[in-house]
Each structure stands twice: as C-alpha cells, then as structure tokens.
Amino acid sequence: MQALTIPPYTLDDSCEALRREVRGFLAERLADRPRPRRAQSWQGVDPEFSRDLGRRGWIGMTFPQRYGGTDSSALERYVVTEELLVAGAPVRAHWLGDRQTGPMLLRYGTEEQRMKILPPIARGGSSICAGMKRAQRRIGSRVGALSRREGCRRLGRQRQQDLDVACEHRALHGRAAAHRS
User: Fold this and answer.
1) Contact present, 127 and 47 (Cβ < 8 Å)
2) What does each of the 181 residues of the chain score in pLDDT, given as a tens digit?
3) How much is the pLDDT for 134?
4) Which has the closest alpha carbon to 19: 79, 91, 73?
5) Is 163 left (phi over 0), alpha (psi -120 to 50) or beta?
6) SS3 annotation, the chain
7) Which of 13, 45, 49 lies closest to 167, judged by CA?
C-alpha cells in the first residue's frame, strides 16, 4: 500500500490576520469562563455569545451575502472553527445550523426556506435541533447520546418509530433525519 503524503500548508496573510482577530476576541470574551465550562465546548450553550459571533460575521461565513453570510472561503471558516474549539467556546447554540442545516438548505432548500432560515442562523439568532429515529439513537448516534444526557424528549411518532429530538427546548427550528425502509 502506498503511503499518503500531505505536504505542509502555510496559511496566507489574510487567514493569519483572521486567526489573530478571532484569538483576541475569544481571549477577551471567554476570560471569565472557567476551564471546566470551556471543556464542555460542544455542549456549551450561550445564545449571547452566538449572537456576538453572528455580528462579527463568523457564523454562516460561507453562506452567500443575500442569505446573511459573508461569502468567505472554506479555509477562513476553518480558521474560525479551529480557534473556537481550541478556546473552548460554547458552540452548541449555533453549530448545527452553521455546519449542517445551513449548507443543506443552500443545496436542497427552496428559496423561501433559504430566505426565512439562513439569515437568522448567520446572525446567531437561530438554533436548530436535530431529530432522529429512535433506532438511530440506540446504535449510538451523537444526537441520541445528547438527548439522553440532557433530558431531551421524544417528539412524536413516524411510522410507529419514536422520533427523538436533541434539545428542542432550546431550538427555534427542527430538522429531522430519516430514511425509508
């Protein structure tokens, strides 16, 4: 088998400047957040923090401007994401909308859905929950683990299958993941 070789890559000056800007913001904004809370970055919910990121254009960065984004590159988005996670920033309130639902709507959504849902995501003012069939929860999905740990509840029934929703009590919109058998 041939070894995979990935050559080193150096970020350009604009990405390095963005990295410094994000680090400075996070050092100031998270200064009073204790380390144990930072260690729960993925579970951390801070709507005001998400709105601060949205005001800076750091949520929905790759969305087109007409949907509230900044038309930034995937590399710029990567730089911001990397710094958020390294700093232990509370990303839960905007993560699913920014990383999954937004790109899905850009590709498959109607124009009406894009205009209604994407700008609030980019502003950090909309949180998205994810629904999955109970069978997916049992096999160890991340959403299933979250729903058990955080006291989230069953939302309904779809073809006699329970539909679990991760933390819908904190979300403005919901997205269901399902498949036909």
Assistant:
1) yes
2) 889 998 888 899 999 999 999 999 999 999 998 888 888 777 788 889 999 999 999 999 999 999 999 999 999 999 999 999 999 999 988 888 898 889 999 999 999 999 999 999 999 988 776 665 554 444 444 444 444 444 344 444 443 344 444 454 455 565 555 555 5
3) 52
4) 79
5) beta
6) CCCCCCCCCCCCHHHHHHHHHHHHHHHHHCCCCCHHHHCCCCCCCCHHHHHHHHHCCCCCCCCCHHHCCCCCCHHHHHHHHHHHHHHCCCCHHHHHHHHHHHHHHHHHCCHHHHHHHHHHHHHCCCCEEEEEEHHHHHCCCHHHHHHHHCCCCEEEEECCEEEEEECHHHCCEEEEECCCC
7) 45
- Whether residue 80 contacts residue 18, with contact meaning beta carbons closer than 8 Å, is answered with yes
**Tokens 């909309």, residue located:** 126
CA distance 99 to 5: 28
* Token duo for residue 123: 């502003």
User: What's the chain's length in residues?
Assistant: 181
Q: What distance lies between CA 64 and its chain's CA centroid?
A: 17
Q: How far apart are CA 118 and CA 106, in angstroms?
A: 9
Q: Are 174 and 165 in contact (CB under 8 A)?
A: yes
Tokens for 142? Answer: 């991340």
Q: Specify the residue for token string 């990935």.
A: 6
Q: Residue 163 is which amino acid?
A: L
Dig out the tokens for 28 from the structure: 């100031």
